[in-house]
């Protein structure tokens, strides 16, 4: 199963967060070779590059979703801006993890959020909406 990941900053732009996230995810041995960067759209007039960058990650049963979920939550939590990572499953289900919602979480809450996200991404399972562990 392929999931598509987009990164938005506080200004709703999606044009640069995918590269740093892709580098972060590639550090995980179980994710190496599963991540592809994909450009979408045409560049805006007067700019260089693409309108948006996305990542596609190939998931298979066996724990890869758990590694991806933990890495995503940790990356978002460590960001200094207000990034939001949106993961889209092949069935169109989207799951968003926003920095402003995870930054103040303790280790237990981060683990719970990562587990919820992993369950929602695991191939062959129905979608499960991650709950806000701060509630």
What does this protein structure show overall?
The protein has 135 residues and is α+β, with helices and mostly antiparallel strands. The chain contains four helices and five strands. It has a five-stranded antiparallel β-sheet with strand order 2-3-1-4-5. Helix 2 (64-78) packs across helix 4 (107-121). The model is unreliable at 46-51 and 127-131 (pLDDT under 50).
Key traits:
135 residues; alpha+beta; 4 helices
Quick structural gist:
With 135 residues, this protein is α+β, with helices and mostly antiparallel strands.
Q: What's the story with the biggest beta sheet?
A: 5 strands, antiparallel
Distance between the termini: 31 Å
What percent of residues adopt helix (DSSP H or I)?
25-40%
How would you state the average pLDDT, rounded? 80
